[in-house]
Design goal:
The protein is α+β, with helices and mostly antiparallel strands and 578 residues long. It folds into two domains: 2-161, no CATH class; 167-571, Methylamine Dehydrogenase, Chain H. It is 21% helix and 34% strand. A five-stranded mixed β-sheet has the order 3-31-32-33-34, with no helix packed on it. α2 (19-37) packs across α5 and α5 runs antiparallel to α6.
Length: 578
């Protein structure tokens, strides 16, 4: 009889109250599923994830502390183990985590495991402190065993075991030693169709004078070469059969020249520098610029270089961040150098804002104070017949004089928390499309005597391309809005359609055919007809593997794609003649 009584479950009245904790777990994960499936800009998504995790934590603590069927000692012990375990977990975490990313990763799983343990021990009516500590600390310990590999465009984490080799380590281990000594190519000549700078000669993502076969089912792109590459989010510059990009090579930032036809490394220039941050990882962000036999490159930590294009030898360099007394922006210096006349222009931040240097010597030419952050590149445009430099930063968008950087006009940043990441697009008649990444606006620039004024024709927050640049074709804007291809009517600012998911990828326009070439966030190449009535996807195929935020480049019949782990070249076939 005594044996039977000992084996019987305790009366229901004495059991631990579990259903509120279980309900909170269900609500949290349901909320996460809804957020993951909902189209929204990156910042609201981050806030939703962060506030959701915070609410989950606070509600779980309140429910634990008010659970009257637990002893006061057990409740205090649980709270102490949770908070103490998280504190120690942050200290022991892999260095890829910062405290915020560790807590956002660990807390939901710790709380879910905690609730599951409560349900498991509910029938005993007397949970042990040792069991509780084992569950909480064990879950935190598992998170301490992983490396955080950052987020994708929808803020989904990627993780791996902390002892496993990183793609960068695998790449460096497999790469033959760099050839040293005198290396010199023939003089470079800029040819028609080459891409000498970020997003092409006009920085508008438009390819002109090229036609390709659009039936990729019958004539798929042909792989010419595909190989590993050092991490970085730079695009590529292609001039006279040579390809130049920026990579991270261990503790050095590297500007690397390849043979565009074979992928073989031609020369490399390295400087001791390494920028990294948790979300996007290590490596340079800007794209090199070619001009008159020279390569201009801007490192993520603020090192501006001028190199001889034939050999990669340094002609001059400037530590822009040090000279501006500015820390690198949160995501690193990302502005591709603009060569305008005798000046090379970059975003410097700090006391300099936008800074110009003599393209031949590197001597400071002028600086124009601006905002703290920017991930948008300076752009040379002609507005109402006057050449000027467009620059966007966290404070404002400006038109600057080429000669001395004098301010011609300005427009305050309509979304101050957001640092601009995109390129503006000039239109005819003094019109200009501009975006901070959280909106899109059509501006009219008017010149009255020596004074410029900016008139906003319309502004819309229904098109939020984040860090994916847009293109313009036949009166429409085409771009990725939270990873979904969208079309916006330029006259009205109204969205015409939104269809086709590509993640936080990038695109370019083949103007002669009205075709978009999209490089998705997963490394897929897609061909889409840029039609205002509806998108017309022709085909897509996997070109490279892994998270891909880099811009594709198309030169003649070759398309070049890269991400933080690999780079490839494909040949696009010519259209059939009738």
């Amino acid at each position: 009889m005594d044996h039977d009584s000992a084996a019987s479950p305790p009366p229901a009245a004495s059991r631990i109250r579990v259903w509120p904790a279980a309900a909170v777990v269900v609500l949290y994960w349901t909320f996460q599923i809804i957020v993951a499936q909902t189209d929204m800009a990156m910042f609201p998504r981050f806030l939703s994830n962060s506030l959701g995790a915070l609410a989950f934590l606070l509600l779980s603590i309140v429910l634990w502390l008010t659970n009257g069927r637990l002893t006061g000692r057990m409740r205090l012990l649980g709270l102490a183990v949770l908070l103490g375990g998280l504190f120690v977990g942050v200290l022991l975490a892999d260095r890829s985590f910062n405290p915020v990313s560790f807590l956002l990763t660990a807390v939901p799983y710790v709380l879910t495991t905690w609730a599951g343990w409560l349900m498991y021990v509910r029938r005993s009516g007397a949970p042990s402190g040792a069991g509780l500590a084992a569950v909480l600390l064990g879950t935190i310990g598992v998170v301490d065993l992983i490396r955080w590999n950052g987020l994708d465009g929808r803020l989904r984490s990627s993780v791996s075991w902390r002892w496993s080799a990183t793609p960068e380590q695998i790449f460096l281990a497999s790469k033959p030693a760099t050839v040293t000594g005198e290396i010199s190519t023939r003089p470079w000549t800029l040819r028609a169709g080459d891409s000498p700078e970020f997003r092409g000669l006009l920085r508008d993502g438009v390819v002109r004078g090229v036609r390709i076969a659009t039936n990729w089912m019958e004539s798929p792109p042909e792989k010419i070469w595909r190989q590993g590459v050092g991490p970085g989010w730079s695009s590529v510059t292609v001039v006279d059969g040579y390809l130049v990009t920026q990579e991270q090579r261990g503790d050095c930032e590297a500007v690397v020249c390849y043979d565009a036809e074979t992928g073989k490394e031609v020369w490399i220039h390295q400087d001791p520098a390494r920028f990294t941050e948790g979300i996007s990882g290590a490596g340079p962000r800007a794209t090199p610029t070619y001009r008159d036999g020279r390569i201009y490159a801007f490192g993520a930590g603020g090192l501006l270089l001028c190199l001889d294009s034939r050999s990669g030898k340094a002609i001059w360099s400037r530590d822009v961040a040090r000279e501006a007394a500015a820390p690198p922006p949160q995501w690193g210096y990302s502005a591709s150098p603009l060569v305008a006349g005798e000046r090379v222009v970059v975003f410097a931040g700090g006391s300099k804002g936008t800074a110009a240097f003599d393209a031949s010597t590197g001597a400071p030419a002028w600086a124009r104070e601006g905002g703290k952050d920017s991930y948008s590149s300076a752009q040379l445009v002609s507005i109402r017949g006057q050449a000027q430099i467009l620059m966007q930063d966290s404070q404002r968008m400006t038109g600057l004089s080429l000669a001395d950087g004098a301010l011609l006009w300005e427009r305050a940043n309509p979304t101050p928390p957001a640092a601009p990441m995109l390129q503006p697009h000039p239109l005819e008649g003094g019109m200009l499309l501009a975006s901070t990444g959280q909106d899109l606006a059509l501006l009219e620039l008017r010149e009255e005597g020596a004074k410029w004024t900016v008139v906003e024709k319309w502004a819309s927050s229904r098109f939020r391309p984040s860090f994916g640049d847009f293109v313009v074709h036949h009166g429409c804007v085409f771009g990725l809005d939270d990873g979904v291809l969208s079309c916006v009517d330029i006259k009205t600012g109204e969205r015409v359609w939104k269809k086709g998911r590509y993640g936080s990828g990038q695109l370019l326009l083949l103007e002669d055919q009205g075709v978009l070439v999209i490089l998705s966030e997963k490394g897929e190449l897609a061909l889409v007809e840029a039609r205002p009535e509806a998108p017309g996807e022709v085909f897509r195929f996997p070109a490279i593997d892994g998270k891909t935020w880099n811009h594709p480049v198309l030169v003649q019949d070759r398309i070049f794609v890269r991400n933080a782990t690999e780079m490839a070249c494909y040949r696009l076939r010519s259209p059939k003649t009738p």
